[in-house]
Design a protein that fits this description.
The structure holds two protein chains of two kinds.
Chain A (H helix, E strand, L loop, with lengths): L1 H32 L5 H6 L5 H11 L5 H13 L13 H7 L1 H28 L4 H15 L2 H15 L15 H6 L2 H27 L2 H8 L4 H39 L4 H10 L3 H29 L6
Helix pairs in contact in A: 1-4, 1-14, 5-14, 6-7, 6-10, 6-12, 7-10, 8-10, 8-12, 10-12, 11-12, 12-13, 12-14, 13-14
Chain B lengths: L2 H33 L1 H4 L31 H36 L1 H15 L3 H12 L3 H27 L3 H8 L4 H38 L10 H8 L8 H28 L8
Helix pairs in contact in B: 1-3, 1-10, 3-4, 3-6, 3-8, 3-10, 4-6, 5-6, 6-8, 7-8, 8-9, 8-10, 9-10
Classes of the chains: A mainly alpha, B mainly alpha.
């Protein structure tokens, strides 16, 4: 019975995810098609003859009716073919894959920083609700969430790299750099990105813990004479973890968005800076591919969190 | 409710009112300063004065001058006009679109599944990524930045409105109106919409803040409005080259963004605590 319900829940979420993915593909198709002018003339430049443009349009299928173009596009995406970059002269997928490393490390690093700061601070703030500590935490976190990432990044570069030479200012260590060297280039960008997310996660952890700390079972645990530490960490945190996990998952999307800006500020050769240069050069296939991959990752992460819920919290198996 | 809980609650309400007032006052000062820019400064935000280039803050130039000798204080004021206009326009457009979508979806159950999935799909795109792609597709201009950001933030509002509509439609007074034979559009407008004002107001304030941050990021990346137009984002972008020798060029517009966004977040946070105690514990 329980297994059946679990299977039912998993299938439901899986179908939901597939539908959302399909809609993501549709949205991307629409975005690229509303662009004025067509990719063929962008690629060939203003001097190209109309005949050459027309030939390229035919070879890309741009002269077919929109519904046909859409089906071709979906089929192409399903095959894992994201097209060819106009400027890089390589398939979009391999361009993205080549730049995946800095972006992945950057995102992981910043989520680590954010969680390590946010969880203890948020729990303590909730536990000491209304205290001076709580108020300082709330004020600082709101302040941190108001700082534009790119500006914070520039300030950190000025302070830690230019003034004190403690950390590298930009880049990713050049070709052949050791892993340690590459990671040292990620410290400042990761802090930049981590600050805003830690603000969000702190506030959310505090809120979830407040919710749980006033629940009956916490009162019961206390009245049984259980130690405070155990009440907070074993009973309260366990139950507050589900909403906190959601926010951490959602934060990954914020981080990926932030990576677009942060990578540009720090000159990191990642997916984010690839997107920005693609936008500046109107390299539509790259924009399209990056949108698909990043939104796809977000949908997958959400799906994974949903699955995690099913494991952690039996109440979710409705 | 124990005495202690009552006291905390009263304290919370008082604090909420104070945060709204402080946030509102700061925002008002920023908006007035931006609106009255020509009266507050004798300089032009765009006219070059090479002889005055890279002057540090002084009595003549409160925030210093940039590499073209333009007065930073003046440019921050004029930049505020643009940044605030974009934020406000995005709030208005995405609120109207989000409210209409959310109401329809919340009320007509058949629309719920398809539209909700579409909103899920739209929200799968990271804010900035979707915004820069849309601006890239539409072409960089002030109007297109507003359109792009409105598309980005409409799903957020639509979701909130949908969730609230689902609650409100089951409330006794709405059911009573339906039983009395009041038409659906009328119920939507006069009964449900009234109950939605609080959540829309709260979410709208946050969207205002996010829209300003994203606009600044777009301008900074060079994919937003033209770099010739002073916005806080373009000013930071132009100033980064002189971070070492003339840090004031990028420092003051950055402070302006932080101040404006912080005041909006204070208002949003306080409003949420005041208007909707159910939501007050979230974030």
């Amino acid at each position: 019975m329980i297994r059946n319900r679990l299977l039912h829940a998993v299938c439901g979420r899986l179908i939901g995810m597939i539908v959302v993915m399909l809609l993501v593909v549709t949205v991307v198709f629409v975005i690229v098609r509303i662009a004025p002018g067509d990719p063929a003339s962008v690629m060939l430049g203003p001097q190209a003859s109309p005949a050459a443009v027309a030939a390229l349009r035919t070879s890309w299928g741009l002269d077919r009716p929109l519904p046909v173009q859409y089906l071709l596009f979906v089929e192409q995406v399903l095959r894992g073919d994201l097209g060819q970059s106009i400027f890089l002269n390589e398939p979009v997928l391999s361009a993205l894959a080549q730049r995946a490393e800095p972006t992945t490390f950057l995102t992981l690093f910043s989520i680590l920083i954010a969680v390590v700061i946010a969880l203890p601070v948020g729990i303590l703030a909730a536990y000491k609700r209304g205290s001076a500590f709580d108020q300082v935490v709330m004020t600082v976190s709101m302040f941190a969430a108001s700082i534009p990432t790119f500006w914070l990044g520039l300030l950190l570069i000025e302070f830690f790299a230019v003034r004190f030479h403690w950390l590298p200012a930009s880049g990713y260590g050049g070709p052949g750099a050791s892993l340690g060297d590459r990671l040292s280039h990620l410290i400042l960008p990761a802090v930049t990105l981590g600050v805003a997310s830690s603000a969000l996660i702190t506030r959310f952890t505090r809120a979830s813990m407040l919710d749980v700390l006033s629940d009956d079972y916490v009162r019961t645990a206390r009245s049984k004479g259980m130690g405070e530490m155990r009440v907070v960490l074993r009973h309260a945190l366990k139950n507050a973890l589900v909403p906190i996990l959601t926010v951490i998952g959602l934060t990954v999307a914020v981080l990926i968005a932030g990576a677009v800006v942060t990578e540009t500020v720090f000159g990191l050769p990642g997916v984010g800076s690839l997107v920005v240069s693609a936008v500046l050069r109107r390299d539509y296939p790259v924009i399209q591919g990056a949108l698909l991959v990043l939104a796809g990752i977000y949908v997958l992460i959400n799906f994974a969190i949903d699955m995690l819920y099913l494991l952690i919290d039996p109440r979710v198996r409705y | 409710m124990t005495d202690r809980e009552q006291r905390t609650r009263r304290l919370d309400a008082l604090l909420a009112r104070k945060t709204v007032l402080i946030g509102g006052a700061v925002l008002l000062v920023i908006a007035l300063a931006a609106a009255l820019a020509p009266l507050l400064s004798a300089y032009s935000p765009t006219q070059l004065a090479i002889a005055q280039r890279l002057h540090p803050p002084s009595a003549r130039h409160w925030f210093g001058t940039d590499d073209f000798g333009r007065d930073i204080f003046t440019r921050v004021l004029y930049g505020g006009r643009l940044s605030l206009t974009v934020g406000a326009a995005v709030v208005v457009v995405s609120t109207v679109l989000g409210a209409v979508l959310g109401l329809l979806v919340g009320f007509f159950r058949r629309l719920d599944a398809p539209v909700s999935r579409l909103l899920d799909a739209m929200m799968a795109f990271p804010d900035i990524l979707l915004a820069i792609s849309l601006v890239a597709a539409l072409g960089p201009s002030l109007l297109n930045v507003i359109i792009a950001l409105s598309i980005v933030y409409t799903p957020r509002l639509a979701r909130i409105v949908r969730a609230s509509t689902l609650v409100i439609r089951e409330l006794p007074y709405v059911e009573a109106a339906r039983a009395l034979g009041v038409s659906t559009p009328r119920i939507l407008v006069s009964h449900v919409l009234r109950g939605l004002i609080s959540p829309i107001l709260v979410q709208g304030t946050f969207v205002f803040a996010y829209a300003m941050l994203t606009e600044a990021a777009l301008s900074f990346l060079g994919v937003g409005v033209s770099p010739d137009i002073p916005t806080w984002g373009t000013m930071i972008s132009l100033g980064q080259e002189y971070m070492d020798t003339a840090p004031w060029i990028m420092l003051f517009p950055g402070c302006a963004i932080v101040l404006a966004v912080l005041s909006l977040q204070l208002i949003g946070d306080g409003l949420r605590d005041l208007l909707d105690p159910r939501l007050s514990k979230e974030i």
